[in-house]
Every structure is written in C-alpha cells, then in structure tokens.
Design brief:
Rossmann fold, eight-stranded mixed beta sheet, four-stranded mixed beta sheet, 46% helix, binds NADPH dihydro-nicotinamide-adenine-dinucleotide phosphate, binds ketopantoate, NADP, 6-PGluconate_DH-like_C_sf, EC 1.1.1.169
Length: 316
C-alpha cells in the first residue's frame, strides 16, 4: 500500500515506521521544518524502545510542496490545531480514491478532513499507544513490542474492502487493530480517557502511574467520566463501555500499560507549546452546552490548563 504520513512527530513516526517495516511504501510529509531538516540530514529517523536500542531507520521525508505522488492512504498525525493547515497544504496529493485516516486524540480533525474527501474515504479511530519525541527525528516507542492497540472506525460506520486492507496492514505492523462500527462511541471512549489522564497528569506534573496510585484517583476520574458521559449521551453517543468500565480502562492503562508515561499533553506543556485541551475537555464542555447541560469540572480543567500554558509563556 502506498502511504503518506502527514506529520513526522511522535505518533506519525511510530505508525509510519511500523507500516514501512510491514512492507508498505511509506513517505512522510512534514510541515514542521526542524523535523524535516533533521530527518533529511540523518537520512532517517532514530528509533528507540523504552529508551533502549536507539538505531537509525531510513525513511523518506518531503515538504508538502515537494510531494507529488498520489497515495492510497494518507495518515494525519499532527496535533489537532494543526490539522486544518496540514490538510490545506497537502490537498494536492489527495487523489480521487485516496483515503484519509486519523487516530489523533480529541475530536475535531474529521471536520477538517471532510473539506477534502468524502465521508466514505475517512477512517477515524483511536491509538492506545504511548510515544515520545525526544527531539526532531528521534522517537521513543514506549511499551513492549506488540503491546500497542488501535481501533479503526469508518466515519460512515460501513467498513469497505479498502478499510479491511488497512486493518490487515495494521495487523502485519503489530498495531493490534480492532475494526469498530460505532464512530462516535469509539472516539468518545478515548476522549474520556484523555480528559482525565492527559489533563490531570499535565496539571499535576505526574506520570499515569503516579496518578492512579493516588487513593482519591477513582473518585476524581469518576466525576469527570460522569460529566463527560452525560454530555455524550445528550449528543446521541452510543457508548461502548459503561462508566465503571471506563474507569477500569483508565486504571488499567495507567497502572499496567503505561505507568511511567507522561501523556502527550504533558510533553506539549514542558516544551511550552499549546496543548490539545480545547479538543478534549473543551469538546466535552462545548457538547454539554449545546444540550443545555453544564460540565463544570471539565470547564475548570480547561481554564487551569490555559492558565498553566500562559504561565509557561511568561516564564520563557
Ligand atoms: N504521543 C502519544 O503518546 C500519543 C499522541 N496521540 C495524538 O497524536 C497526535 C500527534 O501527537 P504527537 O505525535 O504526540 O505530537 P508530535 O510529536 O507530532 O508533536 C510535534 C509537534 O509539536 C511541535 N514542536 C515544536 N517543537 C517541538 C519539539 N522540540 N519537540 C517536539 N515537537 C515540537 C511541532 O509543531 P509546530 O510546527 O507547531 O511547532 C510538531 O509538529 C495528537 O493528536 C496526540 O494527541 C495519540 C495517542 C498517543
Ligand atoms: C495516555 C495515552 C498514551 C493513551 O494511550 C495518550 O493518548 C497520550 O499520551 O496522549
């Protein structure tokens, strides 16, 4: 399969390298110049797993204006707030039959992708994978080989032949895909997890393991899950997990899968970049308000995150 990954950051590199190693023809298209330059100069990307075995993997990288192939599949892995500009810059290589896939955290990118491809060609989903970008062109895959999980879902909720081919390629790449047919239910399950883990670990400067080790963690998580759940239900989301199951998933991911991980939002904060909080807790607040509800806890978290972002800027 001919694949172009837009965004050679932590997750873009992880998906791209794994799919390349599984035999696909993968190119990276990068708008972020330091990353493009580093990968060009190194003739590849440095890959480690859990800080060990750092080695160079040759990859091809292009600026959007340099890229002229028409891929079968585009994988969008920028941050949410970069999605619109990235799709606009890359629109010339999205062919009539090209599918676009996003497994970004938060909700919003699909609306940007819709400006360029019909719903039938959009595959959304979620990544239960932790990855850290040590520096441009230097990525660290967290977790044992094969431990990562992905969920893919067509925006139309109707998997077609090409989607099944993508699932097979993800399987070959060791990304343990599950094909779902509940679009919003799938996205909201990760949204709720990120609204707890990413935001609280970032604000408190702690790892996922440190969060769940706190005796009051379940109570805190439940308050956020309940508020998010109410907003989602009002919006017609058909949740795939109960509130209790959601809590168990958060506990499991944090205590067993990624206890030492600082979520991606934390990585943005320490590097003084804007976070995706508006697309995570902010999306829950917006959805609640649309239905005349309140999501006061999430609203407070959005404000606190923006306060922390602003303080970080003042201290630069
Ligand atoms: N990382 C993870 O474990 C997971 C991430 N996700 C999601 O995947 C999507 C992509 O995220 P992710 O791959 O983590 O992010 P990236 O590694 O792609 O973020 C890098 C972006 O941050 C900016 N940046 C600026 N300076 C630096 C620097 N020194 N180091 C790193 N980045 C810098 C660049 O944007 P600019 O040009 O604006 O400076 C760059 O494009 C997001 O939606 C995220 O929520 C989902 C699951 C897990
Ligand atoms: C918490 C985690 C790793 C969940 O897979 C994630 O989504 C992130 O770091 O942003």
């Amino acid at each position: 399969m001919k694949i172009a990954v837009i965004g050679a950051g932590a997750m873009g590199l992880r998906y791209g390298v794994l799919l390349q190693e599984a035999g696909n023809d993968v190119d990276f298209v990068e708008l972020w110049k330091p990353s493009y330059q580093a990968i060009r100069e190194q003739s590849g990307v440095y890959v480690s797993r859990d800080h060990k075995n750092r080695h160079l993997v040759p990859v091809d990288i292009f600026l959007p204006e340099e890229y002229t192939k028409i891929p079968d599949l585009v994988i969008l892995f920028t941050k949410q707030m970069q999605s619109g500009a990235a799709m606009q810059a890359c629109r010339h290589f999205i062919g009539e039959h090209t599918y676009v896939l996003t497994n970004q955290n938060g909700i919003g990118s699909v609306d940007e992708i819709r400006n360029y491809v019909p719903d039938q060609q959009i595959i959304a989903g979620i990544a239960l994978i932790a990855t850290v970008l040590n520096a441009p062109g230097d990525v660290d895959f967290m977790g044992a080989k094969g431990a990562a999980h992905t969920q893919l879902v067509n925006v139309t909720e109707k998997p077609d032949t090409f989607t099944h081919e993508v699932v097979r390629e993800f399987e070959k790449a060791g990304m343990n895909p599950t094909l779902q047919t509940n679009y919003m239910g799938t996205l909201w399950s990760k949204l709720l997890m990120n609204s707890v883990i990413n935001t609280l670990c970032t604000l408190m400067d702690i790892t996922m393991g440190e969060y769940v080790a706190y005796s009051g963690a379940d109570d805190l998580s439940s308050r956020l899950i309940d508020e998010g759940y109410a907003a989602g239900l009002a919006d017609g989301v058909n949740f795939m997990q109960s509130r209790e199951e959601m809590l168990q998933i958060i506990d499991h991911e944090s205590s067993q899968v990624n206890p030492l991980h600082h979520p991606s939002m934390y990585q943005d904060m320490v590097n003084s970049r804007p976070t995706e909080v508006d697309y995570i807790n902010g999306y829950i607040v917006k959805t609640a308000k649309k239905h005349g509800l309140e999501a006061k806890n999430h609203e407070m978290l959005v404000d606190l995150l923006h306060l922390a972002e602003s303080a970080k800027q003042l201290n630069l």
